[in-house]
């Protein structure tokens, strides 16, 4: 079995249909279908079932997909290691991060890393919550994850890389003290992310310590919608400091919560040998925050 067929199969799984996968792979659909059929024949089991214009992954296909992702990730790491044995002259780095971390600090870290290693291509993927970051690492979709601090399973490794300050933003014209006591959120409408999102978890935990619950007026998954919702008067929101600065420039009232709230940040990776690009990126971020980095 060659890696090409496995990668074609995974493309169909990820895109949801042969036609969409063929476009992404720049292949004809018949050629793609033939490659997947050959793979199924080699494995002795159907991996996909056609349903209308899409596909359904069989039980055998689901089992094979998990192993294929890890195998292809290891294959790419080995390929990069051989090619870059004399130095980091290329490669591709795939990173998973929470959307609220994408612009700060991930974008800054990726930008300075690319300045140091301009031949390394970087792909950033969003994850809805810390559990999805871990799942991406486990499956081999990405090599490195950047997430908020959370309990880690035994099959992944984490490095503490500092913390992110959090602020409260209120609709324009709001009269609020600075700092703003968290107990003052009692009875106030709040714009919040869904349960499981790291900022929602931090907010709920802080209020629970005060024996309070957030009065959720709007629950929103789209991060870009938070500032417009607050500006329109929908309620207050807990956001990272850099988001609060943008909101303030657009007219929102900003306050520091009391007690102060912060989000601990982690770089997450699988144990064992990583690609040269992933190793260099982790070292780059650790040096940027040293001496605070510590393995978990």
TrEMBL record:
PANTHER family assigned: HTH-TYPE TRANSCRIPTIONAL REGULATOR YBHD, NITROGEN ASSIMILATION TRANSCRIPTIONAL ACTIVATOR-RELATED
Keyword DNA-binding: yes
Family, per entry: Belongs to the LysR transcriptional regulatory family.
Pfam family, one: LysR_substrate
Organism: freshwater metagenome
GO molecular function list: DNA binding; DNA-binding transcription factor activity
Ranges of residues in domain HTH lysR-type: 1-58
Matching InterPro entries: HTH-type_LysR_regulators (IPR050950), LysR_HTH_N (IPR000847), LysR_subst-bd (IPR005119), WH-like_DNA-bd_sf (IPR036388), WH_DNA-bd_sf (IPR036390)
Lineage: unclassified sequences, metagenomes, ecological metagenomes
Cellular compartments per GO CC: cytosol
SUPFAM superfamilies: Periplasmic binding protein-like II (SSF53850), Winged helix' DNA-binding domain (SSF46785)
Keyword annotations from UniProtKB, A to Z: DNA-binding, Transcription, Transcription regulation
Protein name: Unannotated protein
